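Hi everyone,

Forwarding the result from last night's run.
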Amino acid sequence: QVQLVESGGGLVQAGASLRLSCVASARTFSSYSMGWFRQAPGKEREFVAHITSSGGSTAYADSVKGRFTISRDNAKNTVYLQMNSLKPEDTAVYYCAARPYSTGSRYETRYNYWGQGTQVTVSS
């Protein structure tokens, strides 16, 4: 069983930056690929980014490419989402997720474990 806890959300103005963190309880964190998803009010949860277990490869949704960066520190059992140039349309609850495979996925159904989410609100 893996527990995930997100933090770092908040209320910021458009153009600002935030860094989200997700700490995992997994004993073998380095064997899990990780993903970030988000869900805005009235919308389905959507893929944001994922990273391989080693941190050697990443992928992003087109809507955040060039603005967001996913990274991980396996020694700290933590995955990060650096969000720059935030836009009002980035407003959502952000979730981190883990799967026991080296390669991540764009599909939420492929992930086994989920955090509780952290709210990001971007004002115009």
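The first strand starts at residue 4 and ends at 7.

Cheers,
N.
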